[in-house]
Design brief:
It is built from twelve helices and four strands; from the N terminus they run H-H-H-H-H-H-H-H-E-H-H-E-H-E-H-E. It has a four-stranded antiparallel sheet with strand order 2-3-1-4, sandwiched between helices. The chain is globular. The protein has two domains: about 110 residues, no CATH class; about 150 residues, no CATH class. About 50% of the residues lie in helices and about 5% in strands. The longest helix is centred in the N-terminal third of the chain and has 18 residues. The protein starts with 5 loop residues before the first helix and ends in a 7-residue tail after the last strand. By secondary structure, it is an alpha+beta fold.
Length: about 270
């Protein structure tokens, strides 16, 4: 194998050209010599995406499969400039979700473009919310294909919890960033944000909506069907239908680790199966 080919260069960074070929299948042939002109950082970034995809695939990597060329293009074009750890997890998850027996399912290309369009802040906020939607409501019997049931999955995210989960530094404009997250995710139909602000404001609204009272400022959020789809694809579980999101038996790939202190609270008593 020519040591100057794209496959060899990327393979050396990932841990072996065979691993790249195993993930991509025949699409590995699209790795051209253009990679030779990349900076070391671009190669490392794409290698990290492939390594995360390998972890998310687990034993599934042993089965025959392929990734569509359009998905590979998005990984190379945009994943190579991704230096945020959680965003790389999303790239790797979509890459893993895109590996199918016939290599035809190119829905991942749209999810990768979406990942490129979102800021690292929005991706982290999305992940935090959907991680806790599953944590709080798994096994509840709520039907995630019905909007009425999604509305019952409202969570209150205290501002103190969000600040720590988002890993903000003292130099960042926290309020502006959080509004950027909620408005941007809402615009993309990835999250619903009912309200935010001081406890008094939220409780006045809560009286009308039948929510539990809260004791501090924060955000009220609930999931969307598209947000569920994106989360499953981004964690490497794109083969599962959104309707299974709350199934106890659903075995998800290892999720990225984020330091949480405390947790969001449920605003409505949802029935359990």
């Amino acid at each position: 194998m020519d040591p100057g080919t794209g496959l060899t260069i990327l393979g050396s960074a990932v841990g072996g050209a065979k691993l790249v070929e195993k993930i991509l299948g025949p699409t590995a042939e699209y790795l051209g010599n253009g990679i030779r002109t990349w900076t070391e950082n671009r190669v490392k970034n794409v290698a990290r995406v492939f390594q995360k995809a390998q972890v998310k695939l687990g034993d599934r990597i042993q089965a025959d499969g392929a990734v569509p060329p359009r998905v590979l293009k998005e990984v190379l074009d945009n994943g190579s400039f991704c230096d945020d750890e959680l965003t790389a997890e999303y790239f790797g998850g979509v890459l893993a979700s895109s590996r199918t027996p016939n290599g035809r399912d190119d829905r991942g290309a749209t999810y990768l473009r979406l990942t490129s369009d979102l800021s690292s802040y929005q991706i982290r906020f999305h992940y935090v919310c959907y991680f806790w939607f599953r944590e709080h409501f798994v096994g509840s019997g709520l039907r995630t294909t019905f909007t009425d049931d999604l509305e019952k999955m409202r969570l209150f995210l205290p501002s103190s919890f969000v600040r720590l989960a988002m890993d903000f530094s003292s130099m960042e404009p926290v309020a502006e960033i959080l509004l950027h997250c909620t408005s941007g995710l809402d615009r993309q139909d990835l999250l619903e944000t009912d309200a935010w602000g001081e406890a008094k404001h939220l409780n006045e609204l809560g009286k009308k909506m039948g929510w539990r009272t809260v004791t501090q400022q924060g955000f009220v959020v609930w999931p969307t069907q598209f947000g569920l789809d994106y989360f499953l694809w981004a964690i490497g579980a794109g083969q599962f239908h959104r309707g299974r999101f709350l199934d106890v038996e659903l075995s998800l790939p290892k999720l990225p680790e984020i330091a949480f202190q405390g947790q969001p609270t449920k605003l409505i008593d949802a029935p359990r199966a």
